Amino acid sequence: MRTSQYFLPTLKETPADAVVISHQLMLRAGMIRKLASGLYSWLPAGKRVLNKVENIVREEMDRSGALETTMPVSQPAEIWQESGRWVEYGPELLRFQDRHNRDFVMGPTHEEVITDIVRNDISSYKQLPLNMYQIQTKFRDERRPRFGVMRSREFLMKDAYSFHIEAESLVNEYQNMHDTYCRIFDRLGLDYRPVEADNGSIGGTGSQEFHVLADSGEDDIVFSDSSDYAANMEKAEALAPADNRPAPSEEMTRVPTPNAKTIAELVEQHGLPIEKTVKTLIVKASEECEADLVALMVRGDHELNEIKAEHLPEVAAPLEMAAEEEIRAVMGAGCGSLGPVGMTIPCIVDRTVAKMADFGAGANSDGEHFFGVNWERDATYTREADIRNVVEGDPSPCGNGKLFIKRGIEVGHIFQLGKKYSEAMNATVLNQSGKDAALFMGCYGIGVTRVVASAIEQNHDDRGIIWPDAIAPFQIALVPLKMEKSEVVRKTSEKLYAELTAAGYDVLMDDRKASPGVKFADMELVGIPHRIVISDRSLSEGNVEYKHRRGGDAETFPVDSIVAELKQKVTI
Amino acid sequence: MRTSQYFLPTLKETPADAVVISHQLMLRAGMIRKLASGLYSWLPAGKRVLNKVENIVREEMDRSGALETTMPVSQPAEIWQESGRWVEYGPELLRFQDRHNRDFVMGPTHEEVITDIVRNDISSYKQLPLNMYQIQTKFRDERRPRFGVMRSREFLMKDAYSFHIEAESLVNEYQNMHDTYCRIFDRLGLDYRPVEADNGSIGGTGSQEFHVLADSGEDDIVFSDSSDYAANMEKAEALAPADNRPAPSEEMTRVPTPNAKTIAELVEQHGLPIEKTVKTLIVKASEECEADLVALMVRGDHELNEIKAEHLPEVAAPLEMAAEEEIRAVMGAGCGSLGPVGMTIPCIVDRTVAKMADFGAGANSDGEHFFGVNWERDATYTREADIRNVVEGDPSPCGNGKLFIKRGIEVGHIFQLGKKYSEAMNATVLNQSGKDAALFMGCYGIGVTRVVASAIEQNHDDRGIIWPDAIAPFQIALVPLKMEKSEVVRKTSEKLYAELTAAGYDVLMDDRKASPGVKFADMELVGIPHRIVISDRSLSEGNVEYKHRRGGDAETFPVDSIVAELKQKVTI
């Protein structure tokens, strides 16, 4: 491709409303343009990258044995009513009516459609297992779309759904998808990690997220420094401290703390070490709990893990904090002064809290705390549980090493769904015994659009994008200098362009009448990994100049050897 | 691929609601399944075909120099209001609101979006010409979706849009697209014709449709038997008869015709040759016409061409027939008794009618006709024009030969739009003189989904589909007989499968435990063009059996030479 015949509207300035790097650079490099909030058009350079990601995903999914399909974007309400999600799914599910006033949704995902296909066309276990996927436009009506294509309303997703008569077959396919995802992200050239994830309300046994590591990532990923253990923050287990609880060594005293509404204020004003404090949070109880509210306690410097908390049988899901008035009615005090002494509602403490002694906590009386509280002697709890986020330095739940935390961008998710949809939608087949059996189901997603943005978040510098070879819009930038004035520059450039294109490379030749500075800046902004500069000066010695986008010194190579040289350097 | 691991739910029976062949066969061959009215899921075998069509379209569009993009399916109402189509477009435009009650449409086409991109990012003629395309899901809320994917609500379309500073550049790109489309349909292996089409209300100079010829086609395509001339029925010009009008030879007589409400009844009851009759149709006049109604006359055996009629400056567009009461008020008689004698409103006659003498027509008095009517002596007309459909045997407007008519399925359309959108949406750039100039625009569509259905309409027999090699889901069917019982059949089949797959062919090996009859029927229904049967019987002589789906006798080839033989026979 020649820049003179290409549409590459690069921008010098960073658009004001673009906050994250990938959004800024995709706009500046002429990859995308905003049509409306959360809706983006992909311009030619962006579309090239998207196609390359899509092709890698397709090739590896095909290799895995999954079968490609395409299901409609528009889906009738009836199947969503059957699955229960017509009601359960929030306003992110875009509902609309057709000209005959029939209800439809724009599909954010396709469990219902694929389950409908399978229940109609699969009647026997002999036709299973089966894994079908599509690479297709999805719509989620985000309340606040942001970060460009990272959290847009329309996006391209690869979603796969597998069906099985036996749980073991689902586990095998789940592993097959895990391995397939690893091959995909390896080929994409990204630094990524599969991490254990929470199964949500579905239960079941397996759920993993695939994260591209980047400092700008939205999610905290937890790793062991001595093993392969990796989990997302929601899932990572905080172990109980190994040591026994110390014996009490202080008397419990009631302390006036009128200006300490928070743990930080308590610590600052009263000289209490934060590790000697506990926080009490009051949440709504589940229906099966005999009380209306439940108290949750974590150490003052720890954070409640809401996902872990909402999995407790005593706690309502989704987690809902109690309102100030409710708390006051039951506890006799407001949020800043709560604690375990004299507690009348179920009280679930974090494993760490259960091992604490001589600690400070609210006195359930406004403006007062108890110091020197000790379990059993002064207060009791209902039971202990893991309800906090891990922190760096915690022992790894795998038993090896300590935990550390990095930021990640979720680009894939594999999930053992179990029978949720097959039971709701009555998707059964005859099993080996000739009886109707609901199917086991797995689902496996990759955010194709998001992969592009995450690749940029992970690979950029202050001059622009630095693409991995496999998904670069062009692998090679040919930059002739003053081509219009120099016949030898023109001829050499055209010859190299023809040879490299014939060799199967995607080459962008910058044949504009523009200064070297303008050309270099654009090629760097767009992120083309390999650059060849052809100038009178170097050609006078029979050479051209090569430079990788990641930096390092420019190297000179004889014109005659540069194609062979590039075949060594560039992976396609 | 092996049938045992594939999802190919073939059906023996034709589903009741499938009327056209392609719909029936796509359902029976397990290519598609209906999700809701006009919404279809593509199962693996169908998706393979769709992907192959898409890839050919993409390769040839890329080769043409057009640049691939992707624009959102969802489009904000504002740009449709700017172009005027928010109001103009009927209920086929699906309008919806997002969670913030903002208006959107599901894109049936993307002129507004691309024009918005271009006006924002193209500022100078130096960046032109430019042609951008996408292959993307479209939505049209058809009142009565039917014929399977032939007229569905969601479908895949390749739409391209070109922008130019000069009309000549648009004409060049239009020709480039014409040539590109010919390459595409050649590669698809379809019998097709580019035909001249009407430009509609846009005016401008160029519009061509690409039709796949099939007896079941919805459209009439008009050809010359002695030249390359081809046009759709709307566009094909009906020339004036070469001969002069004969002199009157009969007296005009008033005839009671109480039971002749139609031309057919008039001819039957009164023995008048149909070529001696005229039909009078009363339509609404345009605003610029001084009258409210206009009379249009065609010979009794001819049909009014509504498109030609609505292009008349005197006639309202879109064409609207006058109501019976309006007609009676102005003409003094109802529809079955209208004619030119005593006509008080503008009267436009077809060129053929203008050359008629001694003809019969309604007397503008209920239950009466005049016979022996002659122009000038008995009645006058305002002017003559081409307002009828051509019929077989008419002279070709190209000047060579006579016309004949075939049926076609429209699968592509190329169109010189001119400045319609650029002027409505203020898409201007600086021209060579440094002045703002509205852009010339062309648009070029291919119904990718429809191509698949049209290929079946053109290529099938009573046993199923017969795919062209280039778009067959599998080019080669390997049918081992009693594989489970014969080691040599199994080994030979596996070896051939491996070799043919390695050679780049898409091979479906039917490894089911099923009778030869069941296997042959399925492979024929699915339409795989090349079939190899591996059986103990033929292997005992060292042979396998080859047969093409189109028929002819089965041929035997030595096992060792069959791969080389297929390389001759199969095009990929």
From TrEMBL, chains A, B:
<dbReference type="InterPro" id="IPR033730">
    <property type="entry name" value="ProRS_core_prok"/>
</dbReference>
<dbReference type="Pfam" id="PF04073">
    <property type="entry name" value="tRNA_edit"/>
</dbReference>
<dbReference type="InterPro" id="IPR007214">
    <property type="entry name" value="YbaK/aa-tRNA-synth-assoc-dom"/>
</dbReference>
<comment type="subunit">
    <text>Homodimer.</text>
</comment>
<dbReference type="GO" id="GO:0004827">
    <property type="term" value="F:proline-tRNA ligase activity"/>
</dbReference>
<keyword id="KW-0648">Protein biosynthesis</keyword>
<dbReference type="InterPro" id="IPR050062">
    <property type="entry name" value="Pro-tRNA_synthetase"/>
</dbReference>
<keyword id="KW-0030">Aminoacyl-tRNA synthetase</keyword>
<feature type="domain" description="Aminoacyl-transfer RNA synthetases class-II family profile">
    <location>
        <begin position="38"/>
        <end position="468"/>
    </location>
</feature>
<comment type="function">
    <text>Catalyzes the attachment of proline to tRNA(Pro) in a two-step reaction: proline is first activated by ATP to form Pro-AMP and then transferred to the acceptor end of tRNA(Pro). As ProRS can inadvertently accommodate and process non-cognate amino acids such as alanine and cysteine, to avoid such errors it has two additional distinct editing activities against alanine. One activity is designated as 'pretransfer' editing and involves the tRNA(Pro)-independent hydrolysis of activated Ala-AMP.</text>
</comment>
<dbReference type="InterPro" id="IPR045864">
    <property type="entry name" value="aa-tRNA-synth_II/BPL/LPL"/>
</dbReference>
<dbReference type="InterPro" id="IPR044140">
    <property type="entry name" value="ProRS_anticodon_short"/>
</dbReference>
<dbReference type="InterPro" id="IPR004500">
    <property type="entry name" value="Pro-tRNA-synth_IIa_bac-type"/>
</dbReference>
<dbReference type="InterPro" id="IPR036754">
    <property type="entry name" value="YbaK/aa-tRNA-synt-asso_dom_sf"/>
</dbReference>
<dbReference type="InterPro" id="IPR006195">
    <property type="entry name" value="aa-tRNA-synth_II"/>
</dbReference>
<dbReference type="Pfam" id="PF03129">
    <property type="entry name" value="HGTP_anticodon"/>
</dbReference>
<dbReference type="InterPro" id="IPR004154">
    <property type="entry name" value="Anticodon-bd"/>
</dbReference>
<comment type="similarity">
    <text>Belongs to the class-II aminoacyl-tRNA synthetase family. ProS type 1 subfamily.</text>
</comment>
<keyword id="KW-0436">Ligase</keyword>
<dbReference type="InterPro" id="IPR036621">
    <property type="entry name" value="Anticodon-bd_dom_sf"/>
</dbReference>
<dbReference type="InterPro" id="IPR002314">
    <property type="entry name" value="aa-tRNA-synt_IIb"/>
</dbReference>
<dbReference type="InterPro" id="IPR002316">
    <property type="entry name" value="Pro-tRNA-ligase_IIa"/>
</dbReference>
<keyword id="KW-0547">Nucleotide-binding</keyword>
<protein>
    <recommendedName>
        <fullName>Proline--tRNA ligase</fullName>
        <ecNumber>6.1.1.15</ecNumber>
    </recommendedName>
</protein>
<dbReference type="Pfam" id="PF00587">
    <property type="entry name" value="tRNA-synt_2b"/>
</dbReference>
<dbReference type="InterPro" id="IPR023717">
    <property type="entry name" value="Pro-tRNA-Synthase_IIa_type1"/>
</dbReference>
<keyword id="KW-0963">Cytoplasm</keyword>
<keyword id="KW-0067">ATP-binding</keyword>
